[in-house]
Specification:
alpha+beta; two-stranded antiparallel ribbon
């Protein structure tokens, strides 16, 4: 049986390992590495699913193709509900001798994506203009707890990489509306590429 501090530490460890796997899904089996090296991911979209949601934390990552290959999407999903249930069951069982196993349950799904459609969506994103900062007078007085976060990160394929990251929750800045609409379009299109 865990004490309260043990339980918090186990949950924190499990969550940290899960997000490391989701954010670096190219290393999950089957690995996206071969004799030519590693495919570069661009962009990556995610949903954290904190709080009360009907979905699990996930990432959608596009991997830059090698010269003669189609782009690849990898969807990685953390089965957070089952993993948390497992941790709580171990913590509540006074007679259990089961050791805590901090290995998260991750499932992946890979698919080739249609290159021209992907490029068309990227061109649309190139037209979006967002403010880097906005006036303090536009400050929002929201305070929401236990909500999921949604976000995206775009990587350049140069080394060292340039990247741009946006993350939001229940009340995103209104100035980001064009980016959020593009995110929904990209997310829906990517999901359609994963369907058989």
């Amino acid at each position: 049986m865990f004490n309260h501090l043990d339980l918090r530490n186990h949950i924190r460890t499990l969550s940290s390992l899960a997000w490391d796997s989701l954010n670096n899904s190219e290393f999950l089996k089957p690995g996206l590495i071969d004799e030519r090296g590693l495919r570069f991911g661009r962009p990556r979209l995610w949903r954290t699913a904190d709080g009360f949601h009907d979905y699990e934390p996930e990432t959608l990552t596009i991997f830059q193709p090698f010269k003669d290959e189609s782009p690849l999407i990898r969807k990685a999903i953390w089965n957070r509900s089952a993993d948390m249930k497992r941790v709580f069951e171990i913590s509540e069982d006074q007679h259990s001798h089961t050791a805590f196993n901090p290995v998260p349950t991750i499932t992946i799904q890979d698919a080739s994506i249609e290159k021209d459609g992907f490029e068309a969506i990227l061109v649309q994103a190139n037209e979006i203009r967002l403010p880097l900062m906005w006036p303090w007078s536009n400050h929002r007085d929201n305070l929401t707890e236990d909500v999921g976060k949604v976000g995206m990160e775009v990587f350049d394929i140069a080394q060292p990489q340039a990247s741009l990251r946006l993350e939001w929750s229940a009340e995103p800045p209104p100035e980001w509306k064009p980016a959020l609409e593009w995110f929904d379009q990209m997310s829906n299109w990517l999901e359609s590429q994963l369907k058989p």
